[in-house]
Amino acid sequence: MPGFSVPTPSKPTFRHLVNVEDYIEVREDIFEVYEAVNTQPHMQEALRKRSVTTAQDEAIQFGKAAENYDPHKLVLKKINALRTHRTLVTAILLVTIGFLHYTIGSVPEFLITAADWIMLSPHRTGSSLVALIVGLWLLYVLSLKGNRWVTQRMNRELRYYEPTILSCRKEASIRSYRMWNRSLSKPYTLTFLGLVTIGRTISPRAYDGAMNLVKAYLPLFVDYYAAVRLD
């Protein structure tokens, strides 16, 4: 029909799939708590050891680091090391098996079995147990890498960026930017944020009540702790 076109459905983005806007709204509430903490007198005195300029620079650096944060870095590093060692051991076994086969024409059964199990090759061993081990192992590794990808994408959406930090003139806000961006490289931050966001979705009223209490009393508690430390 002339003048009529069927709209092309937009491809879902990461922001829509994860409802990032809900997380950002919760982030803003938490940021207000940070600001309230950083305006308390004893906290301000404790924080003067780090200049505002330094806090501003560190806020930017922590934000950039958050985008590359890998919560499973040590585990994946060990897994990669195991893969390297497995490849090396397998190569040595195969060379040994080949050498024995072509020199004396006989290969000990345990060497063949060891090579099969190290390579975890179901089509060679015909073992359903090995297939299960391989499947679970691959699932575990993929889950770690998937979680790393989601964490880095979330941090990219939730961190405060350089223009926002540099244009700010409030000391308490600058120090709060630093605190927030730094927290994104902690393993518990996104888990906590996710639980709070789910709670807000289930019961906005309970969330508002709890957040109001936190904003009213947490800054006083932190300031008291800062006063004790200063004494």
How far is the N terminus from the C terminus? Answer: 80 Å
CA gyration radius, whole angstroms: 27 Å
Portion in strands = under 5%
Sheet of most strands:
none
- Total helical segments: 12
Low-pLDDT parts are: 122-126
* Overall pLDDT metric: 80
Q: What order do the SSEs take from the amino end to the carboxyl end, as H and E? A: HHHHHHHHHHHH
Whole-number total of structural domains:
2
Structural class: mainly alpha
Morphology: elongated
Question: In which range does the helix fraction lie?
Answer: over 70%
Q: How many DSSP-defined strands?
A: 0
Report on the structure:
This protein is mainly α and 231 residues long. The protein folds into two domains: 16-71 and 153-224, no CATH class; 73-146. 80% of the residues lie in helices and 0% in strands. Helix 2 crosses helix 10 (171-183).
Topology:
Layout lengths: L13 H5 L1 H19 L2 H7 L4 H16 L5 H31 L5 H11 L2 H4 L2 H31 L3 H6 L3 H13 L5 H14 L1 H27 L1
Helix pairs in contact: 2-10, 2-11, 2-12, 3-12, 4-10, 5-6, 11-12
Give a concise summary.
Helix content is 80%, strand content 0%. The protein has 231 residues and is mainly α.
List keywords for this structure.
2 domains, elongated, 12 helices, 231 residues, mainly alpha
